[in-house]
Every structure is written in C-alpha cells, then in structure tokens.
C-alpha cells in the first residue's frame, strides 16, 4: 500500500470523528459583528488538545480589538515539526457574518441531512478547521520520515480584513511560513484574488425645518450626486479586464447608507459606506485617489455640501506566484486523483487573508472543503451547508499534498 493509500485509509477510518469535530465548531457562534470570538477559540483549543495536539494561544489586546470594532480575538497556532525543511501554514478563519433570516435548519445546530451538514460557517470556513486538522493528524499517523513543519493557523477576523488574525501572527513574529494554504473549495485551486478598498464617506449639510428648506443644506442631495457619479463609473470599470481566469473586471458597490433625523427635517448628515473591488492589475494607490476624486468632484456640484472620506480597509490583491507552483501542482495532481476530474487553477473576485501571507513572503494557494462556487454553498446566506463527501475527499487531497511537499 502506498503512502497516499494509507493516508486515505486513515481519513476514512476517522471520518466520523472529523464530522463530529466540525459539528462542535459550528455550534459555537462567531457572529462578526459583534466579533466576540475568544470563546470559540477556547473551545477549539480544547478539542485540539483532546486529540493530542499542542495548541498555542495568541490573544490580541482587548483595546486593539475594540478599536477595530470587535470584542475579543484569540488566534490559535498548532505546530508539528517533522524535520528540517519548509514550513507549510494552513489557515482557516472562524469568524462569520450573522446568520440572518430564512433558515430551514438551525444556523448553529450543525444538523446533517441527505449527506450535508447545515450551519453558519459549515462551508466558509470552519469546514477547513476540520480539513486541515485531520490532514495533519493523518500525516502524523503515517509515521514516515518527513522534512519540514506543518502549522495550523485558526484566526478570527477575516470579515474585518485579517489584520488582527494572520496579520497579527505575522507582525508579531509568531510565524514565518514558506508556503500558505488558505481555506477554499474542493474543485479548483485559487492562485489569485481581487483587492478591496472600503471607504466611509460622510456628507455634511445643514439641518433645517422641512417647511423652510432654503435655510438648510440638504446632505442627501449631496449624497445623491455622489452616488450617481460613483455608479456611473461602473460602466467604465467594466472595460478594465483582468488577464487572470476567474476574475473579470473591477466594480464599485455602496453597501450601507444612513442619515437624517426625521421625516420633516432637511438631513444635515448622510453616511455612505462603499466597497471598490480591484483586479490584480490595478494599482491600489491610484484606485483610491480616483475614487476620492470622483466623490469630491460630485460634492462640489451641490453648494454648501462638504465631505469627509475615511478609509476602512485597503486589501491588496493576491497575484499568481511562481514560487507556489510546487504546492499548486500537488493539490491539482491529488485533487484529480481523488475527485476523478481535473482540478483547474483560477482567480477569485473575493479578497482573502492569503494576501497578508503573500506580502510576508509566503507562496500561497487556496484549497479546502466546499462546492464549485460560493453561491452553491449558500455562504453568507440562509442554509449554508457542506457536502460531507467533499470534506472527506478534500482532507485526503490536502494530506497527500503535504506528504509530497515534506517528502
């Protein structure tokens, strides 16, 4: 029996334990906001320790977490050194958006029906807490000489940009991996992703009674001018095409608007929050300057209106890295063998924490347990779920790829 066959057999024999582990993780809520995620980290650490894995806890100071709009973060690291060689980090995030309405299965029930496990984060990305943990355990059970180190990184602020998760571990020197495998889906290996700029735009006018509107300055009219200018720009953005398969063109979206005080009051203040996705070919500095210029020029068309612009997030794109080829090829080779179909490489219009590892010098790819598309998984929607057979097979792919990289 080959090493790959032995890894597969171990994973099959322990698959019920892997599913039970994932169920325990899904049942502890990690809604972000509010982002009080230290309890989930503690439960995860307990479960990992019960498997015989040594767990490092890396708490982020409370004042730092609160400044980012969250309540608590403890990042977890498990290290297994097999010998001299490369360090491969496996990163998945536990934080999730709140479940919302429309669920037919309890969002934190981790119920199994017709081969699917339902629950918030079942697919993105507590599933890969399980994938990566059991791939490492299978590798340990193999008992053959290996060269290198495997690290599990379980972090809790991907929804807020990752700076206090992977960013914290990298900045504090807790890790410096050569390779990074980040949470993904099972039918493709992601090698690049979009960047993201998020801005908060506060439009200032002057409140007035609606019966005498000429005594005020309508901030909403200013906001309307800004919105019209921003959305008009999307037509031009569609003409900017990326050469990376899976990534099409940039786009701008205004995701939140709030303002005004009452129906009979001219609004004196309106706040917009926008999201500008950047393709890998774009320069983030130029993009931000362009968006700011569009906002300021539009505001000047409404007399008396002023604007404040505050950056909420600047996430750089991840570009394809030649240094990641050994990891990518191993995942494709074993993905094809286990799933029985070719596993292509692709980019994704999402932005991920992998960019932080890439900026620190790690060669990155995204792969894990999940369906062909985010839409198919219902991630960030009601009835998010994971097909359990995808979990089983993705765990085999990751374990086999680690065996090759460290062999």
* SSE series: HHHEHEEEEHEHEEEEHEEEHEHEHEHEH
What's the helical proportion of residues?
Answer: 25-40%
Spatial ordering of strands, largest sheet = 1-2-6-3-7-16
The termini sit apart by 17 Å
**Rg over C-alpha atoms, rounded to the nearest angstrom:** 23 Å
- Helix vs. strand class: alpha/beta
Number of strands: 17
Largest sheet: 6 strands, mixed
| Helix segment tally | 12
Q: pLDDT below 50 for ≥5 consecutive residues: which ranges? A: none
SS strand fraction: 15-25%
Q: Estimate the mean pLDDT confidence.
A: 97
Shape: elongated
Observed structural traits:
407 residues; alpha/beta; 4-stranded antiparallel beta sheet; 12 helices; elongated
Secondary structure layout plus pairing:
Elements: H1 3-13, H2 15-26, H3 38-50, E1 56-59, H4 62-67, E2 74-83, E3 87-93, E4 112-113, E5 116-118, H5 126-142, E6 148-155, H6 166-171, E7 179-182, E8 189-193, E9 195-204, E10 208-209, H7 219-237, E11 251-259, E12 265-266, E13 269-278, H8 284-299, E14 306-315, H9 325-339, E15 345-348, H10 354-359, E16 363-366, H11 374-377, E17 385-387, H12 388-406
Parallel strand pairs: 3-6, 3-7, 7-16, 8-15
Antiparallel strand pairs: 1-2, 2-6, 4-5, 5-17, 9-13, 9-14, 10-12, 11-13
Helix pairs in contact: 1-5, 1-12, 2-5, 5-12, 7-8, 9-12
Provide a concise account of the structure shown.
This protein is of the alpha/beta class and 407 residues long.
């Amino acid at each position: 029996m080959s090493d790959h066959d032995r890894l597969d057999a171990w994973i099959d024999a322990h698959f019920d334990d892997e599913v039970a582990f994932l169920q325990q993780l899904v049942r502890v809520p990690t809604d972000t906001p509010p982002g009080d995620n230290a309890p989930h980290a503690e439960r995860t650490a307990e479960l990992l320790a019960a498997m015989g894995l040594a767990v490092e806890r890396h708490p982020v100071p409370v004042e730092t977490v609160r400044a980012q709009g969250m309540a608590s973060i403890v990042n977890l690291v498990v290290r297994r050194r097999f010998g001299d060689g490369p360090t491969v980090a496996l990163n998945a995030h536990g934080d999730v958006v709140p479940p919302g309405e429309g669920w037919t299965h309890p969002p934190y029930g981790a119920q199994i029906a017709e081969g699917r496990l339902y629950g918030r984060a079942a697919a993105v990305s507590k599933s890969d807490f399980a994938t990566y943990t059991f791939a490492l355990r299978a590798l340990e059970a193999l008992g053959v000489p290996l060269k290198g180190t495997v690290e599990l990184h379980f972090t809790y602020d991907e929804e807020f940009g990752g700076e206090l998760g992977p960013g914290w571990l990298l900045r504090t020197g807790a890790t410096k991996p050569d390779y990074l495998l980040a949470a993904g889906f099972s039918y493709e290996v992601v090698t690049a992703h979009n960047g993201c700029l998020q801005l908060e735009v506060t439009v200032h006018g002057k409140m007035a009674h609606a019966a005498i509107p000429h005594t005020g300055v309508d901030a909403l009219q200013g906001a309307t001018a800004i919105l019209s200018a921003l959305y008009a720009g999307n037509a031009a953005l569609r003409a900017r095409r990326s050469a990376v398969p899976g990534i099409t063109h940039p786009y701008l979206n205004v995701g939140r608007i709030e303002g005004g005080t009452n129906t009979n009051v001219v609004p004196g203040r309106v706040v917009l929050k926008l999201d500008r996705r950047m393709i890998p070919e774009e320069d983030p500095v130029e993009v931000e300057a362009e968006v700011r210029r569009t906002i300021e020029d539009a505001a000047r068309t409404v007399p008396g209106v002023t604007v404040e612009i505050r950056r909420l997030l600047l996430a750089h794109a991840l570009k394809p890295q030649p240094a990641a080829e050994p990891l990518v090829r191993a995942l494709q080779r074993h993905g094809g063998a286990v799933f029985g179909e070719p596993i292509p490489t692709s980019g994704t219009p999402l932005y991920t924490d992998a960019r932080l590892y890439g900026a620190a010098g790690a060669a990155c790819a995204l792969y894990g347990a999940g369906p062909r598309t985010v839409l198919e998984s219902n991630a960030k929607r009601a009835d998010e779920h994971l097909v359990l057979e995808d979990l089983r097979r993705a765990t085999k792919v990751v374990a086999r790829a680690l065996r090759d990289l460290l062999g």
